[in-house]
Amino acid sequence: MATNNREVRTGGKRKTTKSSSARKPPRKVARRPDAESARSLALAIAEAGLDKKALNVEIIDVRGKVDYADFVVVMSGRSDRQVNALARNIQEHVKKKERVDCIGVEGLPRGNWVLMDFGDVIVHIFHEDTRGYYDLESLWIDAARVQVEEAAR
Question: Domain coordinates of the chain in residue numbers?
Fold first, then answer.
């Protein structure tokens, strides 16, 4: 890494500082190349949600139906605080156990609807009142479902 010395004037005095001309590369997000890995990631997300008492957890297999993800995980919380807790727990659990960083999170701290992007898996966490209004599951009514009980193993 290259460093440059540069002079800075502060209050009439000269001061020499070192600055780095090369920046650290951005942290890489681990992408899982195969469908089986994406499936296991979706199951880990469901498990993390169930650990915090998520309601109506569904894993929808959208391979071949959409191009932005392989699986969509949908779950609900009883309050905005629970929705936020679910999102935090999922993020921590997946980073620790699966070594996958969340690419982006939207909807915090409001807690009506949190959207999390893990690359091949998208997570929707709804307040239970909001989930019925949007009814996302009906968009993929013909898509296969993954048994969530597998996450409880």
Answer: 35-152
Distance CA(17)–CA(135), nearest Å, equals 57
Tell me the whole-structure pTM to 2 decimals.
0.74
Q: Give the residue from 7, 34, 27 showing the smallest Cα distance to 18.
A: 7
β-pairing, 13-20 with 55-61? unpaired
- What confidence tier does 62 reach under pLDDT thresholds 50, 70, 90? very high
CATH number 3.30.460.10 given to 35-152: yes
Using a 10 angstrom Cβ sphere, with 0-12 exposed, 13-18 middle and 19 or more buried, the burial of residue 76 is buried
Helices (H), the chain: 35-51, 80-93, 128-134
CA distances from 79 to 26, 75, 84 (A): 35, 12, 9
